[in-house]
Amino acid sequence: METYPVSTRRRLQDQVFVWDSRFGSRQKHHLESHRLTPENQDSIVTTFIRELRSRLDSPQHDYTALRDFLEKANEDDLKAIRGSAHDDKIRILLDDRRDDTGWEVNGLRHWARDWNSYADGYPPEGQNVVSSMMNAKGLYRKQQRSQLADGAERRILCISDLSPLCGLALIATAPRYQAPILRDYLQRYIRKCVFFGVQISVGFTLEFHLPYYALRSHAEKKEDS
Fold first, then answer.
1. Dihedral angle at the C-alpha atoms of 159, 164, 167, 173, nearest 10 degrees?
2. What is the radius of gyration, based on Cα positions, of the chain?
3. Strand locations in the chain, DSSP E?
4. How far apart are CA 217 and CA 70, in angstroms?
5. Handedness of CA 168, 172, 176, 177 (dihedral sign)
6. Partner of 9 at 20 to 30 A CA spacing, among 106, 180, 185, 196?
7. Would you call 155 helix, strand, or coil by DSSP?
8. What is the C-alpha separation between 100 and 61, in angstroms, rounded?
9. CA–centroid distance for 154 within its chain
10. Where on the tree of life does the source sit, at the highest rank (predicted)?
11. Residue 70 vs residue 30, higher pLDDT
């Protein structure tokens, strides 16, 4: 326990601490605005595979399966204003929301979060809740805009049966610093690897893969390499 001289304690007691309302909402991390930018004639897939690689990476980390998967899609289909024959079907559920801030105690307004609202085991529903379903092109356009400009502190994506075009929408809009994490995740997903892991680098990543097969009767024999 720290002790202070009498004069210091009196000075601390006389200070009035005022919560800065700016901290009532999540501040945008500057790294989130730095996205992958292909150089020369490189494609976004090549840039994504190469980004933040290490010379110490083992040979099995060549991401051949991931490259083959992503190159089945065309980035022009994401940027096209009008629809095309390669449009992806709706397979994405997106949820945006902002945590509640601002609460009153004895008539005094506090701009921080009311942590007592988390005591029941579930977080509060939040504010500015927007849930929508979309395809890969819709995700690409949504991710191009600022998340905070849409009034969302946290964004949740649920993607059913990831397609190459959907994967392309993810890597083309992801922050640069997230490329290694997203690259390893997608590689494990494509190769149906069993994986449990926690990673703490720039952020916190909890990841697990539980691939499975659904067996059904069919007239043709399914080849599985």
1. -130
2. 23
3. 92-98, 103-105, 108-110, 127-134, 154-159, 195-200, 204-209
4. 30
5. negative
6. 106
7. strand
8. 42
9. 9
10. Eukaryota
11. 70
Tokens of 122: 């579930």
| 174 touches 147 (CB < 8 A) | no
- Tell me the two tokens of residue 22: 């700016």
Say which amino acid occupies 52: L
Terminal Cα distance for the chain, rounded: 64
Rounded to whole angstroms, the Cα distance separating 49 from 45 reads 6
Q: What are residue 175's DSSP bridge partners?
A: 35
Which residues fall within 8 angstroms of residue 156, CB to CB, at 6 or more apart? 94, 95
Q: What is the pLDDT of residue 171?
A: 93
- For the chain, what's the residue count? 225
Tokens linked to 20 = 């800065």
pLDDT of residue 37: 84
Q: Cα angle vertex 182, ends 100, 145, to 5°?
A: 50
Closest CA to 203 of 167, 179, 223: 179
Where does 34-174 show beta strands of DSSP type E? Answer: 92-98, 103-105, 108-110, 127-134, 154-159
Decide: 49 and 61 in contact? Cβ < 8 Å: no
pTM of the model: 0.74
What is the per-residue pLDDT across 69-110, written as a single tens digit (0 to 9) for each?
999 998 888 887 666 656 678 999 999 988 777 777 777 777
At residue 43, what is the residue type? Answer: S
For helices 136-144 and 164-173, the axis angle rounded to 10 degrees is 0
**190-198, long-range: CB < 8 A, 24+ apart:** 190/65, 190/66, 190/69, 191/65
